Write the structure tokens for this entry.
Amino acid sequence: MSLDRREFLKRSLVFVPAAGIAPAMLVRAAAAAPGGSTKNLVLIELDGGNDGMNTLVPYGLNGGAYYTEFRPTIGIPAGSVLDLGGGLGLNPGLTALKARFDAGRLAVIPGVGYPDPDFSHEVSQSIWATGDPTGGATDGWLGRMLAQFPVPSFPCALDLDGHLDKILVGSGGFVPAFSSIGQFNFPYDPHAWSDKENRRVAYEAAVDGLTGSGGLVGTMSDTSKGMLGLIDTLQSIPEFTHVGDYPSHYVQNALKLIARLMQADLGLRIFHVPYGGFDTHGDQELDGYHTNRLQIISDGVQALYDDLATIGEAANTLFVFYSEFGRTIHENGSAGTDHGSTSVMFVVGDGVTGGVTTAHPPVDPTQLGPDGELQRTTDFRDVFGTIASKWYGADVTGLFPGHTVVDLGFLP
């Protein structure tokens, strides 16, 4: 049975090239990107709208009574909260992050959001990715930042998902999207698997014959040759001997792959990791559901950190946790929470100046916003802008349309 066009595209490599891939990709990059930087960035997106109030628990704010009044069923008991001081504490599932806080290497940023929040998952995720609450931007803030630097000879960023997130669009270079090395392979017909090598040989012969011929076809052939080289490079990278204690969850595959790719030292330095399951409209803490999800990613990042320490990359890596919006302060009738305006962000790393970076919104009912929810105290663009400016030395003027970045001080 032959492979029709739809099946071919379905089984093909998942990527969105912003520019042609030159044969130079066959050569290992001499310097990491962006701009020769050896600084890594791991973006953990808590997909679905993470409940900030049960992640950073304001159990002691305003006298300590309001939190339990808002959440009589799903509230985290005060005795279980990992105390940070000042009436705030971490969810008990975040013990690994609490250790980073105690070491002064976790920045806790409460009350994060943007003006006039949109409670559609798709719209809000797009706003966070583009850094433009008006919805006018089509490329990502991280892509725009990367475009300030010379395009590297090897991809510097990877989306660990089946599609390229908008946050990485617009870099001017090639950004692949896959969650396992096996996905990034030359496509073949599963009904004629014994013929797959012949297909590769025939395709490569056609590409070789047209490479360097100029024009549109020549450019396509040059790109194809570079893609074949990229496939071969990724398929040949060594396995990683893990020392980190990863949780038994699918997200460990993405985190382990990051360690393997960093060990290979190909030039991949920026990683976007989507981690879903946070749209908790009902039974949010049934069998500790939300707490367990937080613990999985907290323990997973600690395991990755331990792995990176063995190859000398832990000190060069920044981990960022974020979500497209938070949840309502009041639990609903289904023992869950609905879409809310603000949440909490975490920035973790040896280069971080730790602590509670900005003020937590008041929980006193008389000081809530007009919608009866927590008021925003921090704009998410200031968090990302601080990272772009201080971690990568990027120019943040105009990086976020219509917004002037405020340095939040969690990076030197």
